[in-house]
Specification:
2 domains; alpha/beta; 262 residues; 4-stranded mixed sheet; 48% helix; single chain; 6-stranded mixed sheet
């Protein structure tokens, strides 16, 4: 008699519009343990192997949860070396989502806490349903966010708001998250995935080199002086004109037709 294999913690599918849909399903709460980390890396490998994939959408297949945080059981049983290895692995996969290679969209329904919120923060944009709730409650465990939360959250919402969220460990509702800039778009009831896919389809039709340059230059604005940032912006736009897809975009505009971007 064959023992059924455990379902994969992450699945993915191409939508046919240059979009790869990544679904988390590790009940009961999508804890970001080793199975999810490995599954996310495999999904990203699949995206990298397909030149047609421009946009990623990350969503949950577990009702009530986007991802409820790191794997606390795994951390509690770990020694110092194992804890460091787990943190390195989680930071590495989130860093892949945060890179400028492609746009990523987190479609959040339910709870996005701890590492789950850090996954959403690593994505380029976040779409949330009205029941979504966000938080970084690590102080309640005697820890701090360790997969980018202390760095990415202040860049989105400002130092004061980020400190309020992290020092209290409180949960932030969807409306507040949208008001402070944590969430990019609000969707209707149970419609975050649908709206994220629609946004992904829209983004996939635009120039990928231009989008990558937007991400690079905006990220640079957080790390450079204004004069250096302006110089970098000028360098990027010149490169797009000379070697990117600007010629196609400009000609399409003059010819009153949709551009044919790669």
């Amino acid at each position: 008699m064959t023992t059924p294999s455990e379902p994969a913690a992450v699945s993915w599918e191409a939508t046919g519009q240059g979009v790869l849909r990544i679904i988390l399903h590790r009940p009961p709460a999508n804890a970001l343990g080793v199975p999810l980390i490995e599954g996310l890396n495999q999904a990203l490998d699949a995206a990298s192997a397909d030149a047609g994939v421009k946009v990623l959408v990350v969503e949950s297949g577990v009702p009530g949860f986007f991802a409820a945080g790191a794997d606390i059981r795994h951390m509690a049983a770990a020694d110092g070396a194992a804890f460091a290895g787990y943190g390195d692995a989680l930071r590495a996969v989130l860093g892949r989502f945060a890179g400028p290679e492609r746009i990523s969209i987190a479609a959040v329904e339910g709870l996005a806490l701890g590492g789950g919120l850090e996954l959403a923060l690593a994505c380029t944009v976040r779409v949330a349903g009205p029941q979504a709730r966000f938080g970084l409650p690590e102080v309640k465990l005697g820890l701090i966010p360790g997969a980018g939360g202390t760095q990415r959250l202040p860049r989105l919402v400002g130092r004061g708001r980020a400190l309020d969220i992290m020092l209290t460990g409180r949960q932030v509702g969807a409306e507040e998250a949208f008001a402070i800039g944590l969430v990019t778009r609000l969707a209707g009831h149970e419609a975050a995935g649908t709206e994220a896919l629609a946004l992904a389809g829209e983004l996939s039709r635009l120039s990928r080199p231009a989008q990558q340059a937007v991400i690079r230059t905006v990220d640079a604005s957080e790390q450079t002086s204004l004069p250096d940032g302006l110089a970098y912006e000028a360098e990027q736009v010149q490169g797009l004109f000379e070697t990117g897809e600007a010629k196609e975009g400009l000609n399409a505009f003059l010819e009153k037709r949709p551009p044919d971007f790669a």
